[in-house]
Amino acid sequence: MSDPIDDAAADPSPESPVQRALRLKQAAIAAREKPPRGGRFQREQAARIATGKSKPWMSR
C-alpha cells in the first residue's frame, strides 16, 4: 500500500487543485464539437447577412 504523502513527494511537479481544474476545463472545451471550417459552409455563413441588414434603422 502506498501512502498519499509519498505519492505527492515522488511527483516532480505537483499540480495544485486550481491548475488541475483549469487543465480539466481546457480539455473539456477542446473536446467539444467544433463547427465545420471552410468550403461551402463558410461561404454560406459569410453570405448570410448582407451589410446593413442587421441594422434596419440605418436604411433610408
Order of helices and strands: HHH
Could you list the spans in which at least 5 consecutive residues all have pLDDT below 50? none
Coarse structural class: mainly alpha
How would you sum up the major sheet?
none
Q: Give the helix tally.
A: 3
Q: Give helix % range.
A: 40-55%
Strand percentage, roughly?
under 5%
Tally of DSSP β-strands:
0
Determine the mean pLDDT. Answer: 76
Distance between the ends: 79 Å
Word description of this protein:
By secondary structure, this protein is an all-alpha fold. 52% of the residues lie in helices and 0% in strands. The chain has three helices and no strands. The chain has helices at 4-10, 17-31, 39-47. It is elongated. 0% of the residues are buried.
Features:
single chain; mainly alpha; 60 residues; elongated
In short:
The chain contains three helices and no strands.
Strands, helices and their partners?
Elements: H1 4-10, H2 17-31, H3 39-47
